[in-house]
Design brief:
This protein has about 110 residues and is mainly α. It contains 5 helices and 3 strands, in the order βααβααβα. Strands 2-1-3 form a 3-stranded antiparallel beta sheet. Helix 2 packs across helix 4 and helix 3 crosses helix 4. It is elongated, with a radius of gyration of 18 Å. The termini are far apart. The mean pLDDT is about 80.
């Protein structure tokens, strides 16, 4: 499936388990999709049904997460999918600030 590769793509992109995968709005020609392996096509069909995380794709495709990461690297490099990475915890709003906003809204 991966041709012995253990890392996704030449850029060594790292897919977090919660990274969301969607089919690209402007994918390559459908004829190029027929050149993909069955596992690549299975991941594409799962992504077409709905946006899914890397972990969900691995579970739904019944493939190890490491294999899914390598296959997604292929699909990303070929332009079939887009991946949105999760927000780093350091960039999330502080819980104290959110509580203050909620309390302020309740006071209205």
């Amino acid at each position: 499936m991966t041709g012995g590769r253990t890392k996704p793509g030449p850029g060594n992109v790292r897919f977090d388990l919660i990274a969301l995968v969607v089919v690209d709005d402007d994918p390559p020609d459908r004829s190029e999709e027929s050149l993909l392996g069955p596992e690549h096509r299975a991941l594409l069909s799962l992504c077409r049904a709905e946006t899914q995380s890397v972990a969900e794709l691995a579970a739904d495709a019944d493939l190890p997460v490491g294999v899914v990461r390598v296959l997604l690297g292929d699909l990303l490099e070929a332009g079939f999918v887009k991946v949105s990475r999760p927000v780093p915890p350091a960039q999330l709003p502080d819980e104290r600030i959110l509580r203050e906003v909620i309390d302020g809204l309740r006071a209205l």
